[in-house]
Amino acid sequence: MLIAPFLDRVKNLFPWLAIALALIGGYTLWSLYRFDRGPDWLLAYLFKRNFTWEAMNQIRFFIAVSHLAAPALLFGAAFAMATRIVRRDEHSSSGAVGMVYALNTCGALLGSFAAGFILLPSIGMERSLLTIALLALGVGLGSLLLSARALMVLRLAALAALVAVVAGLVKNPPHWNKSMLSSGAFFGPFNFVQDGRITLRERILADRLLVYHEGLSSTVSVHQGDNEEKFFCVDGKTEADQSPRSMILQRMIGHLALLFHSNAKSAVNIGLGAGVSFGALGQHPLDHLEVVEIEPAVQIATRAWGALNHHILDQTNAIITINDGFNHLFSTPMKYDVIAGDPFEPVMAGAAHLYTVDYFTLARERLNDDGIMGQYLPLYEMSLEDYLTIVRSFVKVFPNTALFYTGFDTILVGFKGEVALNAETLRRNFEIPAVKASLAGVGFTTPEMILGMFVADLSQDSGFAGSGPVNTDELPIIEFSAPKSALRYTTDENQAALLAHFTPIPAAWLEGLSQEDAARLQAEHEAVRLMLEAAVLRGQGDTEKAFELLAKANEISPSNPVVKNELVAMLTVSASALRRSGQPEEAARQFQTALQLDPDDFGSLVQLVQLAMSAGQVQYAQEVLNHAWQQYPESPVLMGLVGKFMFTVGGQQSEGLDLLQRAVKIQPGNETLWTDLKTLATMANNQTLIAQAEENLTRLHHFIATGRYR
User: Fold this and answer.
1) Dihedral-angle region of residue 249 (phi above 0 means left; psi in -120 to 50 means alpha; beta otherwise)
2) Distance CA 344, CA 351 (A)
3) What are the start-end ranges of the E strands in 379-486?
4) Residues 527-575 pLDDT 10s
5) CA 460, 379, 350: angle at the middle one, nearest 5?
6) What is the enclosing helix (H) or strand (E) of 347?
7) How far is CA 574 from the centre of its chain?
8) What does the pLDDT look like over 430-471, one tens digit per residue?
9) Interhelix angle for 584-597 vs 561-580, to 10°?
10) DSSP code string of 261-283
11) What is the architecture of the domain spanning 240-490?
């Protein structure tokens, strides 16, 4: 439409066609230099507009248009010009359009094949776009240079442009910041704002990128934070992390349904991810152990989690099926005793089809008669209405369902037959050595702790989800409603719903238990209820009362890992706030309390060392530091602290500087480490290290200011 009036007035369209092709290549090439600035733009826009859903849609649209609008218009113009050129030779409008359209279609097919099966798998996105940009640019400029129909001025301009492009690429080739692209700013923008400012670049510098791989359908990455916890991302969205909360959830997704099955021989896990859930499945004595994963590249990231997933990919009976979970259940003739559903959260585009009635129906059909399905269902980034819609959809297919709470998420356990929450079966499966060790690894040392996480028997509580719509393939309401909650903290309202329907321990579970075991089970269950109540109060702003309830829950069940994790989290947040507000003594007391609950809590150890050193408590600081160093011997943060301690207190200047140099080599983006190295190097009058520290600090400051390394 835009180019049509121009076509009728120009006799020689060939040079203009060449210019259009050159502009397509040139624009694509230019966009490569700003591609990884998207997270910066997104956060800046959201920050100015208070992180609203409307603002998110606007900035997504603007970013997409900024990359695609110009090439799309130029492609349309090139097609129109090519058609007009051929028409003048063919003297047939329909014939010209048909010929150009046919060739264009063949090119589109060839391009799709080359991009998807050759370029992307072999050289990745950045170099694929660079190749295509240079191809279009070369064809356009080359046509101008070689065409007899092009004016001399156009030929000279083409030659100058070609020289400029080559010189620019040689001097400053495009180079994407992989940490920026995999930061997940789109999925968790609040995580990159602190004290009223955007901290994306500081966060990127603090994390270490261990794995980055562009797969056929998504990009997978594994990062390690300065707290030594790993996290696994797909397209920047964190899908698994090493925090105690997440590890409990991931292990339970794999274990829970199997623990209640009397004689499971086959199981499948939908979604590989970090492999922790699949690894939990693998600890049970199964004849058939399978996982379904849509992205082959995920396996690369899974191996980076080997120590946490029981090295499941090395297990000889582990079968990895590359397929979409829905398609697998639709097409496989296999019947399973247990299906563990561990898909993306519903907020992820396309993931909601693994939370539909149709999907759950397929799963039920693939279960043996006494089969059980365990389905992960988060409490965050999803409104209460959406949460209940998915519960309603699951219960429609599995009327006999029990709901379990893992501290920050839930797991639906659906029985194809009657509800079989048999405490004796769970106790027998719990005693399998590999299973017991796996559960002990996340703090569950007794069967009663697992039974204590029970919230409700939904076969008996039809009012939990209430009446309302269900999520289906024909009416996928979650696909469109869940993303609206991406910028809202919804966990509190969903936890309140769990608390409102919290069910006493079924009498059948208590039958046959000794008086001591029955009392322990009741205590574990009450502790979880108190924790839910504390979470609701915290959401209402009553932090003091929430803390009291958590402390009471810990008294009732001092070994419960779910309660302990929440209490430690609340203590560390409170202690950090006290330290920032100038109350170091009270902060230190709360960090000490947190360490009594979890002696290996990294944040508490580091902050307590810093507080003790600031207060001149050298001996105590050394005791805490020695313990921390034993637990995290590869931590660059602790290397830096040990190096400072050795230099300033121990009189071991050379050893202290060596440790700091080792620390900055592991984590070159840590500004504090470089600053400490510069300070100690100045004290030691080591000019070489001073210059090195100053140079790297300048680079870091430049990156924080501009988003680019100098």
Assistant:
1) alpha
2) 6
3) 400-405, 409-415, 454-457
4) 999 999 999 998 888 989 999 999 999 999 998 999 999 999 999 999 9
5) 105
6) none
7) 26
8) 999 999 999 999 999 999 999 999 999 998 887 888 889 999
9) 170
10) -SS--EEEEE--TTSHHHHHHTT
11) 3-Layer(aba) Sandwich (3.40)
Chain CA centroid to CA 185, Å:
10
**C-alpha 680: how far from its chain's center?**
38
pTM of the model: 0.91
Question: What's the N-to-C CA distance of the chain in angstroms?
Answer: 44
Name the pLDDT band for 513 (thresholds 50, 70, 90). confident
Helix crossing, 515-539 with 543-556: angle to 10°? 170
What residues contact 81, with CB distance under 8 A and at least 6 apart? 3, 7, 13, 16, 17, 20
Q: Tell me the residue type at 159.
A: L
Rounded (5°) CA angle 286-253-341: 85
| 91 has a pLDDT exceeding 70 | no
Residue 152's pLDDT band, with cuts at 50, 70 and 90, is confident
Element (H, E) at 287: none
Taking Cα atoms as reference points, which of 300, 294, 293 lies closest to residue 277?
A: 293
Which residue's structure tokens are 């995999």? Answer: 182
Instruction: Tokens for 665, please give them.
Output: 């080599």
**How far, in Å, are 246, 571, 623, 631 from residue 601 at the CA level?**
15, 11, 15, 10
The answer to whether 641 touches 609, Cβ cutoff 8 Å, is yes
Summarised one tens digit per residue, pLDDT across range 624-650 is: 999 999 999 999 999 999 999 999 888
Sign of CA dihedral 58, 64, 68, 70: positive
The residue extents of the domains of the chain are: 4-174, 240-490
CA distance 377 to 605: 33
C-alpha 248/C-alpha 266 separation (Å) is 23
Phi, psi of 374 (to 5 degrees): -105, 125
Question: What long-range pairs does 224-232 form, CB within 8 A, spacing at least 24?
Answer: 226/635, 226/636, 226/637, 226/667, 226/670, 227/602, 227/603, 228/602, 228/632, 228/634, 228/635, 228/637, 229/602, 230/304, 230/305, 230/308, 232/273, 232/274, 232/301, 232/304, 232/305
- State residue 103 phi and psi, 5-degree precision: -65, -40
Which whole-number Å values give the CA distances from 474 to 207, 358, 363, 564, 691, in the listed order? 42, 9, 18, 43, 65
Which parts of 275-315 fold into alpha helices (H)?
276-281, 298-304
CA-wise closest residue to 162 among 31, 13, 29: 29
Q: Which of 382, 385, 404 is nearest to 466 (CA)?
A: 385
Q: Please, are residues 375 and 411 in contact by the beta-carbon 8 Å criterion?
A: yes
DSSP three-state, residue 232: strand
Degrees, nearest 5: CA angle 284-289-291: 120
CA distances (Å), origin 271, targets 204, 296, 512: 27, 11, 38
Mean pLDDT of the chain, nearest integer: 92
Amino acid (one-letter) located at 628 = A
H/E stretch holding 482? none
Instruction: Produce one character per residue of 17-32: b if its CB has 16 or more CB atoms within 10 Å, e if not.
Output: bbbbbbbbbbbbbebb
The CA distance from 298 to 592, in Å, is: 39
